[in-house]
Design goal:
The protein has helices at residues 42-45, 51-67. With 74 residues, the chain is mostly helical. The longest helix has 17 residues, at 51-67.
């Protein structure tokens, strides 16, 4: 199969320097912008409708764990 050659006119202005652009990766390998990505096992994930529900459950667990800690000896 032969490649079809097309006559495309470059309409970009000369001041646009595209060499400085970086390729944006998509998917799990992309850079994260300020948060950790945590993967839940499927059986756990099905219990939570969204990330806010997961955060709420974890905050509750943290709170009751702190409330039930024995006092530190002095």
């Amino acid at each position: 199969m032969k490649k079809v050659e097309t006559d495309l006119k470059d309409e970009l202005r000369p001041e646009y320097d595209l060499r400085s652009l970086r390729v944006r990766r998509v998917g799990a390998g992309r850079k994260n912008l300020g948060g950790a990505v945590i993967r839940l096992e499927p059986d756990v994930a099905e219990m939570f409708p969204d990330s806010e529900a997961v955060n709420e459950a974890l905050r509750f667990l943290i709170r009751i764990t702190k409330e039930n800690e024995p006092p530190l000896p002095r």
